[in-house]
Design a protein that fits this description.
single chain; 94% helix; mainly alpha
Length: 131
């Protein structure tokens, strides 16, 4: 028979997990936004400094070298920052899933047992059809 108290308790547990996950996800997005804003600010400042430096160069060769080194450094910083932000997203996903890890494993456990029991029965039939 359906137990309303148990269902209510499970619903409450799920809701608490959702709220905790929501708070953690919000915090994670905030960290990512701060990281992206800081990177944008730093990139802008470096770009302005580069423009000031390149306008004072006397020869095209020196300008080319300066531009090449700026682009190389800029590319490396961007790749590094995108890797860092990617790691933050991975951490965010892990944090968001954490409250649901135990309930999902618990709910999946009964479904996995019948599948394991049915698997050996299917193997001999496959072997016979292969022969």
């Amino acid at each position: 028979m359906f137990n309303f108290e148990e269902a209510s308790q499970k619903g409450k547990e799920v809701m608490e997990g959702v709220l905790k996950s929501y708070a953690d996800v919000t915090k994670g997005f905030q960290v990512i936004a701060e990281e992206a804003a800081e990177f944008s600010k730093k990139s802008f400042e470096e770009g302005v400094a580069h423009i000031e430096a390149i306008t004072s160069v006397k020869s095209p060769e020196a300008a080319f070298e300066l531009q090449t080194s700026f682009l190389r450094a800029s590319y490396e910083r961007t790749v590094s920052e995108m890797s860092r932000i990617g790691e933050l997203y991975v951490d965010l996903a892990k944090t968001a899933y954490k409250p649901f890890e135990a309930p999902v494993a618990k709910a999946a456990a009964p479904a996995a047992k019948p599948a394991k029991a049915a698997a050996p029965a299917a193997a001999p039939a496959d072997a016979a059809s292969a022969a």
